[in-house]
Amino acid sequence: MLHKPLYDITPFTALDYPDHLATIFWFAKCNIRCVYCYNRDIVFGEGKISQEEALAFLDSRVGLLEGVVLSGGEATLYDDLVELCQKIKQKKFKIKLDTNGLNPEIVQVLVENGLVDYIALDYKAPKEKYFEITKDKHFDSFSKTLNFLIQKQFPFEVRTTVHSDLLRVEEINRIIKDLIKRGYSGTYYLQPFVFSENTIGKVKEEKNHFDISQLSHELEVIWR
Q: What backbone torsions phi and psi does residue 127 show, to the nearest 5 degrees?
């Protein structure tokens, strides 16, 4: 068990949890290695903040904040996540989970026990490019999480980070087609890649132009 699961806490955000003032708990460690990821310190670093310290911080925010965003890294790697969510819920906070969806069993437990209110699911790449982007072969686990959330009609969003040399418009359109085929009818959020010298895969700045006019209109697409 990670004695100190959190790498950091962002005390306040008005952007990360739709329509709610929240804090962000950044969990150390991740189970994938996205080439464009700039959170190296979180992915490879050790946790510095214990569950007890995080809960004590929340006590100081009762009545000031409405929600907690569990982000990372990857929060679902934390062995005691269910217990932590129960304790957050006892304090009457809403919980948003940011996840890559590779732990469908944990997501299922959280959803079915009412321990999470909203999920942001990262659709990293179409199946045939998934390994190239994430260095992980478990697209089927992600797929299971996505299908579960759709079938449950749980409040969630799907999002993709776009580096135009890694994911072209036709690949984003393939994701849109796949989402529609599965029955997803929510908004699809695209996040532009932000260049940093520090990315895990030493990714270069984008050279290709991403032609937004070629994007499919079958789903509502919003750039963040």
A: -50, -45
The distance of Cα 32 from the centroid of its chain, to the nearest Å, equals 12
DSSP symbol at 206: P
Using CB atoms within 10 Å of the CB of residue 150, give its burial: 0 to 12 exposed, 13 to 18 middle, 19+ buried: middle
Q: What is the β-pairing status of strands 67-72 and 6-13?
A: unpaired
Using CA atoms, how far residue 110 sits from 75, 115, 131, 192, 220, in Å, is 12, 5, 27, 29, 27
CATH of domain 6-223: 3.20.20.70
Query: How far is 22 from 68, CA to CA, in rounded Å?
Result: 5
Q: How many CB atoms lie within 10 A of CB 58?
A: 17
- pTM of whole model > 0.70? yes
pLDDT digits (tens, 9 = 90+) for 66-111: 999 999 999 999 999 999 999 999 999 999 999 999 999 999 999 9
Burial of 153 (0-12, 13-18, 19+ CB in 10 A): exposed
Q: How many helices (H) and strands (E) does the chain have?
A: 7, 8
Cα separation, 83 vs 91, in Å, equals: 13
CB of 167 within 8 A of CB of 128? no
- In degrees and rounded to multiples of 5, residue 82 shows phi and psi of -60, -45
Sign of CA dihedral 129, 134, 140, 142: negative
